[in-house]
Amino acid sequence: MAPRKRIKPSELVLPCEWSDCTFVGKCMEEFCDHVARHLREHLNDSQEKLEQYQCLWRSCEFCAAGPNELIIHVNFHSYHTKLKYLGSQMRAYHQDLPECSQRNHSQNMVPEIADTFVCCWEHCDMTINNPEWFYQHVTMHAYCAENESLLNNRKAIFCRWKDCDGTCKSRHKLREHLRTHTQEKVVACPSCGVMFSNNTKFFDHAKRQISEDIRHLNCPFCDMVCTNFSSLKTHIRFRHCDERPFLCDFCDSSFKNTYDLRKHIETHNDSSAYCCDVNGCDFTARTLQTFRQHYKRVHESNGTIKYKCHICQKCFSWCYTLTLHLRKMHQLTCHSRFRYKEDEDGYWTLNIDNFKTSMELNYDFVCKKPPQKTSRRQNCTRNNSNASSKGFSTGLHASQFQPLSGSPVEKSMSEVDASLKEPVYYELQSVPLSFESPPNDFNETVALNAMVK
């Protein structure tokens, strides 16, 4: 990054966003005086006492309970304008930072502050209704503090804020420490308006922003759409890869991750590995999962039926049994988990809005038929032939991950190319990967609205 240029207070560009005003201030004194005139005119127009006082700052819908609260609120807009300008200058000096993808509807949203700012420094009880002058006042305390001797003959500067015994090595460190008491912010994102207490947090916020066009990556083997390369890699590992490097020491079973292996190893326990400690209950189980299901079903829910199918109205005690019912009986499929919401009658049913969103993203509101089951040997033979005919290599290379058409992801592909050159499980590089071929049949006659009763 380019070295940061220090911005002088006299070099500010502060546009006034009060109603239709086009004034641009060059320093905080001039800008705050200009905004104060807007406030006086606005309050004089409403001489009678009102229930609410509307803020006329653009894109701000705040209503104050009284004139003093409105003055504090608008003064914070002035301070927020300076922070956004500082953020725009930092972004201009560091042109490699991506643009903020957050919506700008909250660009002028500021915290609701009803009381004036009170200085809690020792022997100082000054109250100020403008955050700019308040923070400058607290900074004056920091730079006027004197070094004091400690027990080990070292010198330090004590924080004299109320109920604080902190010490700092320098006045500059004391100034930064006082921000923890005053909640002072030093920079704001010019796009979304979020404020930060230091420049590092602002840079982290900027680096996390990714364009929406880069967030959609198609799986090369099915219609799954992922938001990043990590989730796409995980999807291919568990959906289309038959590699199982985690072996059980007690049998010939193998698994794709350690979590499934640990759950399987519990099946080799004695039948009394987990015993229910509720009085009068003699239930025992081999696995912890079975024991937890017993405890919830028998001792917590008391067998209460609280899940209902929105299509056939059949009731279930557990959400996973309802999920199996929806998939097998009604052929509902979704790459993400089924989400349920509580209805007015107290039953939990499928969240239709969430399901529609997932289907729209992955299937364009068309539901798949469940694929026919094939043997493992036939599946491997078919997968290898399909993979070779489509030109896919067994290693998960970044060139296989094709984004949506028109998405500018060439730059991002090169950044993650190194992490995707190796197979999913790099420990077994000599083991060829086999992939499940994507199902080709679609149930084009069953639309999403036909599933919902």
TrEMBL record:
The keyword DNA-binding applies. It comes from the Eukaryota. One of its GO terms (molecular function) is zinc ion binding. InterPro entries: Znf_C2H2_sf, Znf_C2H2_type, ZnF_E-box_Homeobox. GO terms for cellular component: nucleus. Residues 157-186, 217-245, 246-273, 307-330 form the C2H2-type domain. SMART domains: ZnF_C2H2. One of its GO terms (biological process) is negative regulation of DNA-templated transcription. It is found in: Nucleus. Keywords: DNA-binding, Metal-binding, Nucleus, Repeat, Zinc, Zinc-finger. This is Histone H4 transcription factor-like isoform X2. It comes from Phascolarctos cinereus. The gene is LOC110200877.
